[in-house]
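I would like you to sit down with the record closing this message with an eye to the fold:
=====
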Amino acid sequence: MPEINLTVNHEVGLHARPASMFVQTAAKFSSDIEVTHGEKTANAKSILAVLTLGVHKGAKIHIKAAGDDEDEALQALEELVLSNFGEG
């Protein structure tokens, strides 16, 4: 099961539009994807679960995926976060 660690640098963290983009990206894949912040872990395909993590700007998150397209899923989520959710 591949895993990655990332820092969220978006001004609002994983809230509102960035959280929606994160969930929409995760939902494109058949793999099970989990995101962890601190002691909390959430299903990366659930907007409510992701929002409850309370990820703020500068927070570190841990993402792991399991399934047929796990590597592609992690790559897509990593690119999304590193691109600052399309805001450069």
Q: What stands out?
A: The radius of gyration is 11 Å. The beta strands are 3-7, 32-37, 40-43, 60-66. The CA atoms of residues 31 and 69 lie 6 Å apart.
